[in-house]
Recover the amino acids of this structure.
């Protein structure tokens, strides 16, 4: 078995939320007890709605945020114990690609400077290659002409900007990309271009991906393993095949129903069994976090929090009734 | 097709121009569609395809750099383009409602929910002052806001995204409009909440018989929510017809490619086939078909002239060339004739 490149063990993250001068702060549990492994060269997809903790996990993996408890290991090293220099080294292996290419690129510098910045910061140059040649090569790898390097971000379309962001991320030959909603700001006809580009780059450069998205269709297209997050906890973790064919958690099923209507067949049928909205993580429900919205919740779900348990060789579910949800 | 008396809205050859720094662009170009009572039209397209400009034209809410250059917009038999601004004010919010994408920006943060929902009754002076509160509570109840009496004095920031969108729906249905324009009403919401909002709109529609124009880029939602769909590309409608026919058997290459480019869970093993390139810059449109530079089927003819409308019987009849022929059982495709 390949070693996991990213390895999270029972990770918690709580924020102290101040609520006015005279009221005591309260703990907001953004991530509570998350464990997963991403084998080198594979893609792990994190799906969840807003407030599910998916971006918090990304920030902890990137070392931008420390876990409250538990361990985040990247390439075998525990991120928490790294010193400044080691942290700098970690960032060479791990690069983020963010959601909005309109705000993640500095509008005042040219594409060339955007793409070669990591090269300059990390002092990486291929032997006998000028920065300019390297930038041209990177742009070509992401499907842009070398001429693009003289442009400013505002001269580019959303899809082109996201390509620039990807070129920047792969410039220093990282081993892993953390992709936080990489296509959700793009038009539908452009999304597929970027998803396919990411797939090709992964194959060519043997990259590991941690992909974060609210769209289960995007995640299932890209990922080998999928983790479904709700209020900072995994409801279900499974291989792509198991999620597609055999999703067991009512929340996973709801997410699937929401994004995958069989076009032309379900016309006129709207409405799904899931009620209400994601509760505030400041006052999470008792028992199963999903029970207030779950169409099959029973008394037990209100009292007792279901543990994540194995349902198959590559399938874990946190539901008391996983056997009978289909 | 006979011009249905039941048509709430008939848009004919609508053309809207926008003056920009780089010249005048035709944001909406020769757009025609009609909408009958109780029906839902999905207006889909990518950003810049003209869907929002079409809606703003209908409401006469275009920004000052834009103008309707030609065409007609008949709402309940009357041409909205001949109305004075004051007449339009009486129509908007009473006969035509509009829901926008982000309820956080469309609601005023410094007024309570009760005040904002009540405003439509006060503005249109169709209710006695002391009835307003009970009317507000009634409409909040209709959009399924729990405990409306307690929420009456709440501010928008105290509501979740889905609840805020319910409030903006309440504002817009208070006066029982005949037409509701919903411009990306669920885009800012979580996926499980999107369906709840659409379900609510569907319920209200079934009670009141209002027609809905649903603007979106999400074809999944159109498949579930709309009766008809019009696909826009670079300012023009390229294909329209009943959702069932258009989605099951898309005729225009753009519609076909768009449907093939969307990841779907059931098909996630197959590699997606993206549409190459990107939409044209509106100041520099291709001379012929606007999709031609990205089209897999393009020929010399497509480069030279814009194709005519072609209508096809759902029953599988042959292609009939002609301009703007469509109806309940026709789908209209916009492509060079002679190719199947």
């Amino acid at each position: 078995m390949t070693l996991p490149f990213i390895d999270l063990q029972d990770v918690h993250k709580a924020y102290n939320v101040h609520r006015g001068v005279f009221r005591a702060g309260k703990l907001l549990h953004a991530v509570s007890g998350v464990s997963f492994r991403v084998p080198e060269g594979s893609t792990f997809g994190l799906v969840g709605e807003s407030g599910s903790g998916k971006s918090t996990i990304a920030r902890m993996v990137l070392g931008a945020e420390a876990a409250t408890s538990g361990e985040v290991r990247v390439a075998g090293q525990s991120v928490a114990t790294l010193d400044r220099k080691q942290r700098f080294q970690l960032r060479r292996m791990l690069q983020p690609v963010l959601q909005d290419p309109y705000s993640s690129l500095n509008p005042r510098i040219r594409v060339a400077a955007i793409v070669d910045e990591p090269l300059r910061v990390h002092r990486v140059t291929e032997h006998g290659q000028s920065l300019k040649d390297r930038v041209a090569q990177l742009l070509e790898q992401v499907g842009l002409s070398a001429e693009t390097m003289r442009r400013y971000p505002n001269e580019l379309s959303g899809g082109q900007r996201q390509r620039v962001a990807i070129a920047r991320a792969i410039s220093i030959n990282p081993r892993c990309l953390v992709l936080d909603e990489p296509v959700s700001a793009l038009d539908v006809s452009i999304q597929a271009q970027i998803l396919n580009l990411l797939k090709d780059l992964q194959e060519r450069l043997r990259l590991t991906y941690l992909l974060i998205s609210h769209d289960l269709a995007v995640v299932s297209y890209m990922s080998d393993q999928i983790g479904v997050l709700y209020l900072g906890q995994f409801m279900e973790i499974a291989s792509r095949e198991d999620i597609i064919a055999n999703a067991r958690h009512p929340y996973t099923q709801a997410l699937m129903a929401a994004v995958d209507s069989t076009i032309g067949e379900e016309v006129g049928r709207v409405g799904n069994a899931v009620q209400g909205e994601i509760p505030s993580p400041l006052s999470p429900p008792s028992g199963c976090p999903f029970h207030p919205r779950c169409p099959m919740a029973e008394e037990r779900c209100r009292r007792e929090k279901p543990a994540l348990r194995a349902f198959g060789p590559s399938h874990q579910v946190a539901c008391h009734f996983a056997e009978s949800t289909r | 097709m006979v011009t249905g008396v039941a048509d709430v809205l008939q848009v004919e050859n609508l053309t809207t121009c926008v003056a920009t720094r780089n010249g005048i662009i035709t944001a909406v170009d020769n757009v025609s569609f009609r909408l009958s009572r109780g029906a839902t039209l999905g207006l889909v397209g990518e950003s810049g395809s003209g869907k929002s400009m079409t809606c703003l034209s209908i409401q006469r809410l275009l920004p000052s750099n834009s103008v309707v250059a030609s065409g007609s917009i008949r709402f309940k038999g009357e041409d909205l383009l001949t109305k004075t601004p004051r007449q339009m004010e009486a129509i908007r919010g009473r006969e035509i409602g509009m829901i926008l994408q982000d309820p956080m920006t469309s609601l005023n943060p410094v007024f309570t929910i009760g005040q904002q929902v009540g405003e439509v009754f006060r503005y249109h002076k169709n209710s006695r002052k002391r009835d307003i509160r009970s009317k507000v509570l009634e409409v909040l109840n209709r959009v399924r806001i729990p405990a409306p009496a307690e929420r009456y004095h709440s501010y928008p920031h105290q509501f979740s995204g889905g609840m805020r969108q319910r409030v903006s729906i309440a504002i817009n249905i208070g006066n029982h409009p005949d037409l509701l324009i919903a411009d990306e009403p669920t885009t800012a919401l979580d996926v499980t909440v999107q369906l709840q909002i659409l379900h609510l709109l569907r319920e209200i529609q079934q009670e009141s018989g209002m027609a809905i124009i649903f603007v979106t880029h999400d074809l999944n939602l159109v498949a579930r929510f709309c009766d008809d769909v019009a696909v826009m590309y670079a300012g023009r409608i390229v294909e329209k017809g009943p959702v069932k026919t258009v989605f099951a058997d898309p005729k225009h290459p753009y519609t076909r490619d768009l449907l093939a480019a969307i990841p779907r869970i059931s098909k996630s093993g197959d590699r997606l086939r993206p549409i190459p390139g990107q939409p044209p810059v509106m100041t520099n449109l291709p001379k012929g078909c606007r999709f031609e530079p990205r089209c897999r089927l393009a020929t010399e003819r497509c480069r030279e002239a814009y194709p005519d409308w072609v209508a096809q019987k759902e029953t599988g009849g042959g292609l009939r060339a002609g301009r703007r022929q469509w109806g309940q059982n026709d789908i209209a495709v916009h492509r060079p004739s002679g190719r199947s």
